[in-house]
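As a warm-up, study this chain.
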Amino acid sequence: MKSKRCAFLIFLAVLIVSRNALAESTNALHVTFPDERLTVSGLYWFGEDKPVLRRLPARLKDTFRPPVWGLAQSPSGGRIRFRTDSLSLVVVAQNPDASTMHHMTSVGQNGLDLYVDGHYIASAWPNKEAKIRADWRLGGEKKIRDVTIYLPLYKGITISEIILATDAKIESPSPFVLPKPVVYYGSSITQGGCAENPGLSYQSIVSRRLNLDHVNLGFSGNGMGEPAIAQALAEIDAAAYVLDYWANPSVEVYRDTLPIFVDILRAKHSKTPILLTGPFYFSKERVDSALAAKQDEKRKIARDFVEARRKAGDENISFVDGSEMLSSEQVEGLVDGVHGNSLGFYFCANGLEPHLRKALGLGPALKK
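Now compare it with the structure written out below.
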């Protein structure tokens, strides 16, 4: 008799839970992605390739080397933005596979970050089946808030749906201070390796500070200054271009590609600011004289190139000394002696910010 009663109570509990779950699902606004109410920022060609979240357009696939095209499937710098008065937010998503790198968190590589009104709130990451279900609280008071979801730095992702409260309003996100994005090109460092969170690449940090949009075209191990990439960048009507590709090419390739790359950009954008970064400090420069000499030579190449261009009349190109972004006194900002951790990218954002402000005419930062 007791066993029958126990079985009945279990059945009743399951029934109640199931009904509550159904009610919760019914009393929710399910927004299938993509949706015109959800703004995708940072993925310039999304409009022609949606629903795929990637960084280069399919129509140009054959112009890129296969490794570059493969890396473009990781939507680093991509964000989903909107305003809502919902108190809760669920994101249902899927990575193509479950994997981790030894020197980067799963959150940064594969996951999502939630920012509300410009402030970090929470993160989500995949389970063993590479599935992501983020269940986030947006606040305790029903009012309109800006929501930004940062996409993975080093892994592709498919967004199935976004779930809000059933009576939630969805509005366009607040505008950026400039209508055009800042476009970054470079290596794994530029792509975001190895920030702990998708929202902590140096581009994302400085963009939040200045309320700027940005496009991240960093390609891990493959920032080689190729003309095909320069031509893709030139399709973007940018507020500024930041060329940060010093890490991957040899000294000779770096020297040879800079003039060609910049000429391609200047052919379409004669006055757009171009910021050329020099190498930041690698910790092993202290003990490896050959590496230090290579880094110093690249620094000289970048500085001399900008000086020559400016003397030739290009007043809108400038040099950013990498030591201002990460110096020999800031090596705790490196995860492996080469790639930035989140602290390192904070340093990088600090160093780049005044140069961006000057190039974009945004004025100096306010003293705190």
